[in-house]
Amino acid sequence: QKEVEQDPGPLSVPEGAIVSLNCTYSNSAFQYFMWYRQYSRKGPELLMYTYSSGNKEDGRFTAQVDKSSKYISLFIRDSQPSDSATYLCAMARISGTYKYIFGTGTRLKVLA
Amino acid sequence: GAVVSQHPSRVICKSGTSVKIECRSLDFQATTMFWYRQFPKQSLMLMATSNEGSKATYEQGVEKDKFLINHASLTLSTLTVTSAHPEDSSFYICSAQRTSGSATQYFGPGTRLTVL
Predict the structure, then answer these.
(1) Please, which of A37, A71, A82, B96 could form a disulfide with B25 given CB 3.0 to 4.6 Å?
(2) How much is the pLDDT for B31?
(3) Minimal C-alpha gap between A15 and chain B (Å)
(4) Cβ of B110 and A42 within 8 Å?
């Protein structure tokens, strides 16, 4: 079993839709949870960062962490064609170097 | 901001040659830098972790003599792919942590390596 599971998609939605992206994980030691957006042939761009459980909102983006269920989500409101990209979840333990474990990424396409 | 650059962005080389990729944190000091490899439509695979002034820590299965990492300063880390072969063709991405104790990694734009 992979430490982090993420549906690779692709996920196609109409412009303006609410998008829900999810990851599940198996290791309860993960404390830091990140969402990155990666456009084709580019490096990942940090979108959201949360520590432990709870919600965090930034503009159209909301990140949720449910440690009891080992489940994290990223919601995108009023999705735009420019949101079309691959979304990667990443997790880290509390340790000296905070090595990330990445999900496989979900490819999202927002149709105009 | 936290900007990380990589150079070159793309390189094509002949089999058997060595290629050096630079990773720089432009507006912050990075105590730790990471090197990843990404195959098409796959996620990022950590290759090694480097700390300024010390030897890199390689992940299992990564040949340290083939992928030489040098973290010469708090703003520069280099990855050298020695005696490159076609199977080394990939997208190489670095990331940097702003300070020790911070979990957030900021990624460079990546380097596409093609070995003929």
Answers:
(1) B96
(2) 82
(3) 24
(4) yes
Residue predicted with more confidence, A9 or A76: A76
On the CB side of A31, CA atoms within 13 Å amount to 9
List the structure tokens of B10: 């793309």
Contacting residues for A73 by C-beta, under 8 A, at least 6 apart: A20, A21, A22, A23, A63, A64
d(CA A28, CA A70): 7
Q: Do B107 and A36 touch (CB under 8 A)?
A: yes
CA distance A73 to chain B (A): 18
Pairing mode of beta strands B90-97, B32-38: antiparallel
> Quick one: pLDDT at residue A94?
74
Quickly state the pLDDT bin for A96 (edges 50, 70, 90): low
pLDDT, average across residues A27-40: 92
Burial B43-68 (b: 16+ CB within 10 A, else e): bbebbbbbbbeeebbbeeebeeeebb
Closest residue to A32, CB basis, from B42, B91, B103? B103
